[in-house]
Amino acid sequence: MSIHTVDVAQLVHTCPAEPEPHPYDIRRSVIDVIDGGPCRNPVTIRCGDTITQIRCGRHEPTHRQCSACRITVVERIITDTFVGYQGPEQMRPVKDAA
Length: 98
What we know:
By secondary structure, this protein is an all-beta fold. 0% of the residues lie in helices and 57% in strands.
């Protein structure tokens, strides 16, 4: 099984369309990749007169891939940065003073 470790950075804001805080920009950085090794179930394909074998991870759906080709993504750190309200000032939500 290949394991990919990533860090996630999200920019979060509020706007007139959605007053609840929500992410609008998500960036992922690959930190580490642990390779699962060679394919244990290669697939034979034919293209014209050429017959070749490729990794099952390039051809098969996830449930039919061997354990070496299957990828697991681990989110190491998730960072949220709140940038506040973004939109016209006349539409800024008013908080009750009471």
